[in-house]
Structure formats: C-alpha cells, structure tokens
Amino acid sequence: MGNVLNQIGIENYIFLCVILFSIGVFGVLYRRNAIIVFMSIEIMLNAVNLLFVAFSTYHQDAQGQVFVFFSMAVAAAEVAVGLAIVVSIFRNLGSIDIDNLKNLKG
Amino acid sequence: MNTLLAITGIGVLCLLFEIANLRKAIVPFTVVALLGTLGITLSDYGTVHSHYNNMIVTNNFSVSFSALFIVLTIFLVALSGDFYRKTEAKISDFVSIKIFLLAGAVAMVSFGNLSMFFLGIEVLSISLYILAASQRLNIRSNEAGMKYFLMGSFASGIILFGICLIYGAMGTFDIQEISELTGSAELPEWFFIGIVLLTIGMLFKIAAVPFHFWAPDVYEGSPTLTTAVMSTLTKVVAMAAFYKLLTGMNANISYEYEMVIMVVSIASMTVGNIMALRQTNAKRMLAFSGISHAGFMLMTLLNITSSAGTLLYYASAYALAGIAAFAVILYVCRDKENEDIYNFNGLGKTRPVLAAVLTAALLSMAGIPIFAGFFAKFALFSQTIKAGYLVMVIAAVINSIISVGYYFKLILAMYTKDSTEEATKVPVVFYAVGVLSILINIAIGLYPSFVINLIK
After folding, report:
1. Is A21 on the interface with B (CB under 8 A)?
2. Closest by alpha carbon to B108, among B316, B286, B248?
3. In this complex, do A105 and B217 lie within 8 Å of one another by their Cβ atoms?
4. Which domains does chain A have, with CATH numbers?
5. Which residues of chain B have a CB within 8 Å of the CB of A23?
6. Interface predicted TM-score of the whole assembly (ipTM), two decimals
7. In DSSP terms, which residues pair with A8 in a beta bridge?
8. Which candidate, B320, B343, B358, B327, places its Cα nearest to that of B444?
9. Which of A41, A82, A92 sits opposite B157 (nearest CB)?
10. CB distance B129–A85 less than 8 Å?
11. For residue range B287-302, what is the model confidence (pLDDT) as tens digits?
C-alpha cells in the first residue's frame, strides 16, 4: 500500500481531494434541489475521508483511519436529521426546492 | 471527564423518564441534577487531568467555561417547562436534546485531541438542527432548520477539511503534540491552509461577518427558546472553542492572521449594529446584536496569551443578559404569531418587574455601568489598548454607542407607548429566571476580578 502511495505521490492525492471537495462546494452553492445539495455535502465529507486515509498511509499511522469512522458516523447522523427536515418541508410545501424557502427576510 | 459522564447520564435518564411516564418531573429533576453536575465540575477546579489517552483534558479553562455552560443550560431547561406546555407529551425529547447539546459544548472546551473537538461540535450542531426545526407544522421553523442545517453542515465540511490538512502536516491529532511541532520544525504549507479552513468554519459557527448571513433568518424562524439557546449558549461555546483551538495550536499568531481577525471583528461589529438599527422583529434584532457581540469577543484573539479571563467574563456577561432578555421575550410572545417590537408596548405599566429585567439586560448588552456588560467591555478595551491596537478600540467604542440606539428602541416601546391588550398571568418561572440571571449579571459586575482571575 505504501508502495502505491510512493508511486502516485501524496500531492496527487491532495489535488484529487481538493477537486472533489470543490465539486461538493459548488454543488451546495448552485444546485436548488435539497436532495442534490445533501449529496454535494456528502461529496465534500467523503473527499475529506479519502484524504484522511491517504495521509494515514503517508504517515504510517492508524489514527487517520480511525477518524474516518468518526466522520462517517457523524455524516450519517447529519443526513438522517437533514432528511427528516426535508420530509417535513415536503409535507408543508409539496416541494423540496430550496428557492421556495423565502418566508424569512428582513 | 466526570462532568461529561454526568451530563450524558442525565440526558439518558430524561429519555427513560418518558418511558416511566414521569413527564411532570423531568424539568425539576433536570435542574436539580444539573446543579449537582455544576458542583462536580467546580470540584475539579485548580487541577489538571487528562483522560483516555489525552482525549479529554480538564484544566481551569475548561472547568470555568463548562460551569458557565451548565448555568446557562439550567436557565434554558427551567424555561422549557412552560414553553413546551402545548406539546407536553414530547417534553422529554426537547429537554434531553438540550442536555446532549450541553455534552457537546463541554466536549468542545475540554478536548485534548482534534477528533474530540470534531465530535463535540457535531453533537452540538446536530442537536441544534433538530431544535431549530422542532415545530414541524410551522413552515417558518422548517425553513430555519433547513437553512441552519445547510449552512452548518457546509461549515462542518470545511472544518473537517481543515482538521485533515493539519493532520497531514503533523501526523497527529493531539493538541499538545501539534503545539510542540509548530514551534520546532519547518511546517508544510498544508498546515497553514488547514488553520485558515478551521478559522473559516469556526467563524461560520460564531456568525461573524462575512459568514453571518444565515444567522438572522435562523434566529427569526426557530422556536423562541431555540433562539435563546443559539444566541446565548452556542455563541459562547463556539467562541470558547475557537479560542482554545488557536491557543492550543499556534500561540504565536502571525501579523497577517491578526490583521484578518481585526478586519473580521470590526466588520462584524459595524454590520451587526447597522443592520440591527432597522429591524422591527425583536429576535432578528437580537440576532444582529449577537453578530456585533461576536465581533467584540473576537477582539480577545488579538491578545491571545493572556485574554482567556476576559473572554470568560465577556461571555458570561453577554450570555446572562441574553438569558434574561429571552425570558421576557418568551413571556411577551407566548401566544403571538410574531415577535415584533409593538408586542412590547406598555410592558412597563402592565408588568413592571419583567420590563425592568428586560431593560437591565439590554443596558448590560449596550455596556451601561453597574451591569457586567460595561465592565466586560472596559476590561476588553483596556487589554486591547495595552496590546497596541488603538484603532480597533476606537472602532469598538463607536460601535458601542451605535448599539445603544436599537436597544433603546425596545426600551422606549415598553415605557412610552400604551398597551393594547390585557395582561395575562405570568408563570413564576419567568420571574425567577429573569431576576436571577440579572442578579448574577450585576454580581459579577461588582466583582469583575473574581471572574477574570478564574483562568490564569
């Protein structure tokens, strides 16, 4: 495994993860469908998880991989809450387009 | 560590009370149990322990801030009995979520490892998403929950990326080891990018300009008690955690970073105050007031080696005044559809005690003497001048003067206008919480050195 990392180089892992993370960020900023926004947040978190594993191998240290478990558990809890909010919005409004959420302004 | 265990235990017990059909007992039990936890926490004062391989480190900083959070939670739980009277069947959920939120908050100030910090911030945030969206038939609450969820998890992603880059640079999550490594070796540039991303994420959570845009909407739409949690407890927690992160990881903050903090701080004060002037909704106004107070609290980061006591003092003064103000707002807007300022008309004649409490709370936030808010600002400003940031203090003083304008808008509505409706009976808990928090506020105003010297 360390051999593969040496051949590819840690920088390339960082670039890949930054690109994935940016795709997630742009998804959150530009997409209007709540489910797709959630998916974009997941892409952001998973890009970071990938980088954690790469760094963990790079440093020959298991802590990074353990952290991935923490962050996966947290992401699952977060999405569970988010989907519950989406369901209650859908019941009230009949749509999950976040452009419809315009009641609060000032 | 004992604090964290005790708090989690109380949360689980709250859920069990639901099964045993003891809903009436939940609020009194929780208040008493939290008072006990406060005692356990304070008994750790003056000692330094680390638990579970440095995951949790208790020292004077964490003990003092944990005690403040527990006091705030006691007030918030005491208010929830009346607030959730229409949905009493679910009260154990609401109370236990607040308790778990407190567990996250305590983890955020007593972490010794970045993974514990991340877990703490997520436990706190996820509990708040639930609380913000907890009126599920009310579209405004749904919208607030959705906006807070999107912004919050976006910020969490950025924080996680920051932690990841710091790990990549250092090869460890332990704060102690990171702090030793920052002094010695040549650092990869990832480390600094990581610090910047972590800062951005924390500024999101504190709601400082330019990452403040979610705050007014979320504060307005959430149920009023949740707004009270956000504007008092969460803001203070996020600020304390940010302070601890920066002191733990690189105490020698570079000049460029200080410039960024200065600009963010001045921008938060100015934008918060100027936007607050034109608000008609009391909750929205307090949201902008919270943004400007975040700016004030960020000033402590300019003098980071010695300002922990000042941060604790400012945070206590602000949060206790906030609790008192929200106790009155909760009563006034009990059965109202909105929280506009005209609801407060004539409160000075119909409910003189509550009007006095709200006036005192607002005067403390504005920084008028005898209340703790004044001494907090005084300590903060004199410390910042000593550190050599005169421009910063001039901007802060001008902003304090502007802030008097919108606080008095509410005070004038209470005393000069006539009430349009009949007074209803006031549950005694509003008096108790409001008067008690204002009394603590005045008490720490009379003995500022006691609080400031808690963290040396």
Report:
1. yes
2. B248
3. yes
4. 2-96 (1.10.287.3510)
5. none
6. 0.95
7. none
8. B320
9. A41
10. yes
11. 999 999 999 999 999 8
